[in-house]
Design a protein that fits this description.
Blueprint: H1 8-19, E1 23-28, E2 47-53, H2 62-72, H3 74-79, E3 83-88
Parallel strand pairs: 2-3
Antiparallel strand pairs: 1-2
Length: about 90
């Protein structure tokens, strides 16, 4: 995966496949972080907010829920995803 492959749509597709969410919203907030650490200068692809509800979270702690999201998005993180805000619904 390359940095240019990091899009809200790609993240959404992976989360839908791996976590079967009942609610999901992926928002690219990269433009808000121009000039900050981890920004790539393009205004896209580095900072995202994920709002998600999934039956896979049942019985998991908040840390466990977040870990499921991070594990699902590992390839994106390796490719340059710098910041991920997770809101479990």
């Amino acid at each position: 995966m390359q940095a240019h492959d990091i899009t809200a749509a790609a993240i959404e597709a992976v989360l839908r496949d791996k976590l079967q969410p009942t609610q999901l919203e992926v928002i690219d907030e990269s433009y808000q972080h121009a000039g900050h650490a981890g920004a790539n200068g393009t205004g896209v692809g580095t900072h995202f907010r994920v709002r998600i509800a999934s039956p896979r979270f049942t019985g998991a702690s908040r840390v466990g829920q977040h870990r499921l999201v991070y594990d699902a998005l590992h390839a994106f993180i390796d490719a340059g995803l710098h910041a991920l805000a997770i809101e479990v619904l």
